[in-house]
Write a structure and sequence with these properties.
Elements: H1 14-33, H2 48-110, H3 116-122, H4 126-198, H5 201-211, H6 229-240, H7 258-267, H8 277-280, E1 285-286, E2 297-300, E3 306-312, E4 315-318, E5 327-330, E6 336-341
Helix pairs in contact: 2-4, 3-4, 6-7
Length: 342
């Protein structure tokens, strides 16, 4: 009977194959054992904590872009509403002008449009006729001027309508941008949450402790009071928000993202801040971190994608990330790029 067993590869005996496979298994085991703690297979040996931090940072950058686009949508809505109101009022004015011109034209038609020289010859009272003729001349001049005004108003109305159409088109484009940034934020946050959910409970607790630790070497900080009464009021508002949830894209009062918290806090003090952390960075005067006082805005990362409020004693209040409520953290929890006094 013919054998169905495959011949061994040339140059390798059975014992040699066992030796090669054993060596490969040992190498793989050593490689896995050398992976950093918290790393996931196939993630390029990036620790889970670093990957979650990166995803949160990318989500926060997208959130601020979402906030900026949303602010633009709101501005465009207001501009469109004003333009539509101007168009409506312009149309009403044109309708009134047309009505007045129509009334004069109708009166002239009903008078028969008689030649002025013939009307003078047939008139029983030439002097009275001449007075009426002078009046009609003035009416004709006013009518001509009114016609010029009507034509000008129609041109302006056409321009207003064209501008309104452009604003509406830009509004639709901005809405699309908002939707795109929203999808990016949701994707990044979902990825981060899946990674955190896969961690054992003790590793998740360690991640939270690490996220709250100071990372910068800080200068000696002043123990001064708030720089103004409005800063003091904003500090009180921020304190009252501690414990409320992080909600991306929200600016209170029930939930906040980072720039939403600082905007809302200063709004309670009667101060209007821009919506995004990048714009808030330039909403006041820059001061050194060593001179930070309660109520100053502390801007993080070189792209200003995170922001908090200095509260004194080396602490800020901020909205960190989903699942972590508004809380106190060390001012040096991440690289500080600016301190802004409002």
């Amino acid at each position: 009977m013919a054998s169905h067993r495959r011949p061994s590869p040339s140059g390798l005996t059975q014992s040699a194959r066992v030796t090669v496979l054993s060596a490969a298994a040992a190498t793989a085991a050593a490689a896995l054992g050398a992976a950093p703690a918290g790393a996931e297979p196939g993630d390029g040996a990036e620790p889970t904590r670093a990957k979650v931090d990166r995803l949160y940072e990318e989500a926060e950058q997208a959130t601020e872009r979402f906030n900026k686009a949303g602010e633009r949508v709101g501005q465009l809505r207001r501009e469109v509403a004003r333009a539509q109101d101007r168009v409506a009022r312009g149309q009403e004015r044109i309708n009134r002008m047309r009505g007045a011109l129509g009334a004069v034209a109708g009166a002239q038609y009903r008078s028969g449009g008689m030649d002025p020289a013939l009307a003078l010859l047939l008139s029983e009272d030439p002097e009275t006729y001449l007075e009426k003729a002078a009046t009609l001349d003035r009416i004709s001049e006013r009518q001509a001027a009114a016609l010029v005004d009507l034509q000008r108003a129609q041109r302006l109305l056409g321009q207003e309508r064209a501008e309104t159409s452009r604003d509406l088109a830009e509004l639709e484009r901005s809405r699309a941008v908002v939707a795109r940034h929203k999808r990016t934020v949701v994707s990044k946050l979902n990825q981060a949450q899946r990674l955190l959910n896969a961690l054992p409970s003790e590793d998740r607790a360690a991640y939270d402790r690490a996220s709250r630790s100071g990372r910068d070497v800080l200068p000696a900080l002043s123990g001064l009071a708030p720089a103004s009464s409005r800063a003091a009021a904003a500090v009180m508002a921020a304190r009252s928000a501690v414990g409320r949830p992080y909600v991306w894209g929200a600016n209170g009062p029930s939930g906040f993202d980072c720039s939403g918290l600082t905007q809302w806090s200063y709004a309670q003090a009667g101060v209007g801040l821009p919506r995004t952390s990048q714009a808030q960075r330039y909403a006041g005067r820059q001061v050194p971190l060593s001179e930070a006082r309660p109520g100053d805005l502390v801007v993080y990362r070189s792209d200003a994608s995170h922001i908090g409020m200095y509260m004194g004693n080396g602490q800020v209040v901020h909205a960190p990330y989903p699942g972590a409520p508004v809380r106190y953290d060390p001012v040096g929890m991440m690289p500080v790029s600016a301190v802004t006094r409002i």
